[in-house]
Amino acid sequence: MHVITTAVLGLLVGSFLNVVVWRVPRGESVVRPPSACPACSRPIRRRDNVPVVSWLLLRGRCRDCSAPISARYPLVEAATAAAFALVAWRLGATWELPAYLWLTGACVALVLIDLDVHRLPDAIVLPSYPVVVWLLVVATLAPSGAAEWGDLARAGAGGAILFAAYFVMAVAYPGGMGFGDVKLAGLLGVGLAWLGWGSLVVGGFAAFLLGGLYSLGLLALRRAGRGTGIPFGPWMVAGGAVGVAVGEPLWRAYLGLLT
After folding, report:
1. What are the phi and psi torsion angles at 55 (to 5°)?
2. Could you tell me the sign of the dihedral formed by the alpha carbons of 128, 137, 250, 83, in that order?
3. pTM higher than 0.85, yes or no?
4. In the prediction, which pLDDT does 42 show?
5. What average pLDDT does this structure show over 163-179?
6. Comparing C-alpha atoms, which of 143, 146, 180, 140 is closest to residue 163?
7. Backbone phi, then psi, for 36, in 5-degree steps?
8. Which of 2, 10, 66 minimizes the C-alpha distance to 39?
9. Burial status of residue 61 (CB atoms within 10 A of its CB: 0-12, 13-18, 19 or more)
10. pLDDT attached to residue 226
11. Cα 214 from Cα 197, distance rounded (Å)
C-alpha cells in the first residue's frame, strides 16, 4: 500500500518539478506567478493541472488557445511517480524513506536541468544537503527504526569521500568535470553510503561506466567528437540509482569472487 501512496505523491511532486526545471535555471520563483500557458499567458486552471490526466483529457493542447503542450510534462510526472514507487519498494515503509524521496525528486530535476542547460544549480543541490541529513538524523533517532549512529557516520564519511574524489578530478581535469558535479557527488555519497559501503562503491563506479559507454556509443555513431561536452550529472544519478538498487548484493558478490 505504501508503494501506491508514494507513487501518487510522485505524480504530484513531478508536476511541481516541471515548474522547477523551467524556472530555476532562469532565476525565477517557483511559487509566483502561477503557471500559465507560454503561448497565450492564460493561467492554468486547477482542473487542468492534474498530473498526466489533464494532459490526456486536453489532448496535449491549451484549453484557451489550443497551443500544443509538450509531452515532456506528463512524462516527467509519470517518471517521478515510477521513481518514487521503486524507491519505496526498495526501502520499504522506513524512517529513511522521506530522505530518499527528497533525494529522488532533487535528482529528477537536476537531470533535466543538466540536459537542458548543462548546469546543476546550487539552488537545488545545496539546500538538499541539510534536508537529507536532517531526515536521516530523524531516522536515526526514531525509536522503532533500525538505523544506528554508525549508519549516519558512514553516510557523512561517504559524502566526504565522493565529494573529495570528484573535487580532485575537477581540479586535475577542469574541462571534463564541473564543480556542480562535485557538489552533487557529496549529496549522492551521503545517500549511497547510508545503505552501505558497497552501495557507495558500486554507485560511484557505475556512473563512470554508464557515462563512458554512452560516450563511446556517440563516438562510434559519429554523433560526438573527443572534445564534445556531455552532461555528466545524469550519469551520476543513474550510477547512484544502480548503487541504491543493487549496490550491496553486487559488492558482496565481488568480494566473494576475491575470496
Report:
1. -60, -40
2. negative
3. yes
4. 87
5. 89
6. 180
7. -140, 160
8. 66
9. middle
10. 63
11. 26
